């Protein structure tokens, strides 16, 4: 299961016997990081994160199971009974929204889940050179992924871009921020900057747009017509002088 290799466990035996509504389960509950109900945990990308599951109100030893999404985490011996720890290291952007669940081994309906809310700034750098023929369309695309979601804007030559109706079009999702220009003109030459900023930081990317003269299409039809004319001229010339040609032979 993707992501399980990032988990380390520490701190026994468990059993798969079920105990639905058994008196031994009465009042028994689990807690994860001192939370007995499902909860969301906000953290940042980078440092490791420890999750601890604890059995409460039990009169006997209880086995525990950990899951990342639908995949079961492999726990070491000594880290399965009454209390169990897992460590997510390192925490990355891909962990955002991932659900970790601690379950009682003999009654998996007894559980507590934690959803990770991993916050990270925009990661946007670099520059790009775009050579486009006049009257062609062009699209500039930025990675706008961040948590919390960032504010975005386009600049041209360091000034906020004024969008021309019917020629400029913006497209934005939680991860992509695009600017499209229809039928570019020489006046569109310049440096376009994609600015992405959130409470955690900002990033930008420059696009150097160079509009080139439109290339004239190769006159294929005219060349074919010229070849036909030359061929016919030669053929008619041969036919007109056929008597002299045959007399030589």
From TrEMBL:
Keyword flag Transmembrane helix: yes
Domain Ig-like: start-end pairs: 23-113, 122-196
Alphabetical UniProt keywords: Disulfide bond, Glycoprotein, Immunoglobulin domain, Membrane, Transmembrane, Transmembrane helix
Recorded GO CC terms: cell-cell junction; plasma membrane
Listed CDD domains: Ig (cd00096)
Alphabetical list of PROSITE patterns matching this protein: IG_LIKE (PS50835)
Any one GO molecular-function label of the UniProt entry: cell adhesion molecule binding
Signal sequence annotation: none
SMART domains documented for this protein: IG, IGc2
Keyword Disulfide bond in record: yes
InterPro entries: Cell_adhesion_signaling, Ig-like_dom, Ig-like_dom_sf, Ig-like_fold, Ig_I-set, Ig_sub, Ig_sub2, Immunoglobulin_dom
Principal subcellular localisation of the protein: membrane
Membrane-topology descriptor: Single-pass type I membrane protein
Cellular compartment(s): Membrane
Lineage top rank: taxon: Eukaryota
Record field: transmembrane: 222-240
One Gene Ontology term from the biological process aspect of the record: cell-cell adhesion
Name of this chain's protein: TMIG1 protein
